[in-house]
Specification:
This protein is mainly alpha-helical. The protein is built from 9 helices and 2 strands. Helix 4 packs antiparallel against helix 5 and helix 5 runs parallel beside helix 8.
Length: 199
């Protein structure tokens, strides 16, 4: 096996770069602080996933085995699940791996596909900015109200949406910057689609 074969793989007739480099964009490779930010999102999401599983398992055990369920586990698991959803969405956004309809982009010329990608990124930025503001507004509305079981501030629940969409906004702004500043570094849509779909 040659070095060229090690560095690039043929999948479904599409020549792909090494998997780790295809996932990590140039901004992440050049700025360790941004890479740390993405890794923190991934680690916290993983911890929350394990936490949700442990809390649900505890709830089932105490309810059906001990016959005396802990009242706070259901609320805590719901809170952890909400935070997991938004932080994981932010992490996926950093990888630009959210579900997309890429059928048109894969058959258009590269310049047209790039323009569509930039337009989509602008729409995501506008939506994320609005939802960040909406989440923060809801935090102010429920300020002073506590959750029933855990007695945590209800604002903690809405903070998940605020933080999650704020992170998505940051990732989307940086992604748009990369598309404008380093267009040559942007993967071809057909290559990206093949990599994400494991072809």
């Amino acid at each position: 096996m040659t070095d060229a074969t090690d560095d690039q793989t043929q999948r479904g007739g599409v020549e792909l770069p090494p998997k780790t480099e295809a996932i990590r964009d140039v901004l992440e490779r050049r700025h360790p602080a941004y890479e740390w930010m993405i890794n923190i999102e991934r680690v916290i999401s993983s911890v929350l996933l394990v936490g949700v599983f442990a809390l649900v398992l505890t709830q089932v055990f105490t309810r059906y085995v001990l016959g005396s369920p802990l009242t706070w586990t259901e609320e805590a698991s719901r809170l952890a699940l909400v935070w997991l959803a938004f932080l994981a969405a932010a992490f996926v956004s950093s990888r630009r791996a959210h579900i997309t309809v890429d059928l048109i982009a894969t058959v258009l010329p590269r310049a047209a596909a790039r323009a569509i990608g930039m337009l989509a990124q602008v729409l995501v930025i506008l939506a994320a900015a609005f939802l960040t503001y909406a989440g923060f507004s809801m935090m102010l509305v429920v300020a002073g109200i506590d959750l029933a079981a855990t007695r945590l501030p209800t604002a903690v629940l809405y903070a998940a949406a605020t933080v999650g969409f704020a992170l998505i906004l940051i990732h989307s702004l940086l992604a748009l910057y990369m598309q404008v500043r380093y267009p040559a570094e942007e993967p071809d849509p057909s290559v990206k689609a093949a990599e994400l779909e494991g072809l």
